[in-house]
Design a protein that fits this description.
Layout (H helix, E strand, L loop, with lengths): L7 H16 L3 H15 L8 H16 L6 H13 L1 H9 L4 H11 L15 H5 L4 E4 L1 H10 L2 E5 L5 H16 L5 E7 L9 H7 L7 E6 L12 H8 L3 E5 L1 H7 L6 E5 L3 H7 L6 E5 L2
Parallel strand pairs: 1-7, 2-3, 2-5, 3-4, 5-6
Antiparallel strand pairs: 6-7
Helix pairs in contact: 1-2, 1-3, 2-3, 4-9, 5-6, 5-9, 6-9
Length: about 290
Amino acid sequence: MLKIRPECVPCTLFTGARMAKIASENLTLRRKVVSELARRFSEVTWDEVPLDLSYLAQEIVEDVTGVSDPYEEIKRRSNSIALNHYPDLERRVAESPDPLEEAVRLSIAGNLIDFGPYAKVDFEQPFRKASEEFAINDYELFRRSVSASGSLLYFLDNAGEIVFDKLLIETMIRVRGRPFDKVSLVVKEKPLINDATLEDAEEVGLTGIPRAAIKFIGDGRGKAPSFRSSEVKSWIREHDLTIFKGQANFETFEGLSGAFFLLVVKCEVVAEALGVGVGSLVLKHSG
């Protein structure tokens, strides 16, 4: 796990303030959210990972404003816009000399649909971003793993982005020439910024993928296992191919071996950990 750095605290504080503004127009409540965030963040031990801070921000916004899912409307809109682009995504993959690589590129570029670090999202940007070169490129190993693996464990990231993940999984199945024996799709148990939940997976059709089942993950305070738990680690051992999408999943699981990380690098902390620049496309195997 990638422990938080001092830069992570103001970053998440800003995300929490923006979440509070989405949740409520009441300035008094928004000030209270920021004050409570600052107080709680002053108590960090520096053993936390960034995901811990995100869960804390979500908790404080809900406690103060009474709104459990401030990004609900944004997630619906993100899914809708991305689905409207799906025929274009399919066409781009079909016309590529290497459909699987193009689907991987688009899936990674779709990671830009992220309302955590970004106040606004350009839904056309993934189409442009996908043409850039990989900063870390383990594609050949990925391609071989896709062909040889019987089961797939896929940790999803953001609403909207998951439409690009659907395209990748469907392309993987076509390239293989057969379905996976088992596909496990991991979503958040409860709302967390604009991360995908069961509702999002159902909305974009991910649950219609052959032999797909949903697994839930959380912070350990609900029914779902914590992202730190041995149960979640056991899922990786139970599947032949594991994919972690997005920066938060890299920050949380980067110490685990035998998995692929697909992400756009969005901050200096992760850029330094990977040895690449901010904005880089990364397809990394944790050998």
